[in-house]
Predict the structure.
Amino acid sequence: MDISAIPASLGRSLVRALDALLRRCLHVRSFAEDAVCILRVSCGRAREAIVLQDGTQIRPGDPVIDIHFWNERVPPMPESGPDLRWAREMHRRFVASLRLLAQHLMEASSSDGAAIRGEFGFLSGEALDAQSYLFRRLGLEVRRLHAARGAWGRFAEFWQNLFSYWLIWTYNPASLRGKRLLDLERCEVWISRQALLARYGARPHGPQLSAFAQSGATPGDWSAPGP
């Protein structure tokens, strides 16, 4: 399906409707009311065994907390491309969101899993290397996913990447300039629950976390691949 053949307003409305449907199917929910938060969460299961850098062991089938970008709230990228102001605002909101998530997990009575995971379709090449570096600076481990073997695996990955591309086109079309669908590469980011709480769980002094929203740009439509 070539979404470019559909009128832009109708096409973006269809993508938003499909995005909302997938969120309901995956039980994606918000965990903070603060307008600065650009993440949502859902409950997932580990697909394979993994040992995180702090020694946390994840077995196949173990519960994990999946994070998803809140597309409507991520800062819009300028038409001219990413600049320092946008990068600083994106970093500020992502850090604030991790703090809000840590606060939510500290206050929650149940344990949804020993680790937090996010799966996204990133553009490959230099953009992917830069994004991976920034995530590692934030304490997140980045795992590049290789296409599953077999026809079904390649088919599933294509549709995942296509939907990621549609989300970018809907929420952040400026970032697609010079990019192709075939440039997308799927990646996972991980952090153990213990590491998240140790790094982001300390309560800030002074005003509540909503103070993060009092400077810089207001929330806007920046696309983040994934539901």
In short: The first helix runs from residue 8 to 26. The helical segments are 8-26, 84-107, 126-137, 151-171, 193-200. Confidence is low (pLDDT under 50) at residues 204-227.
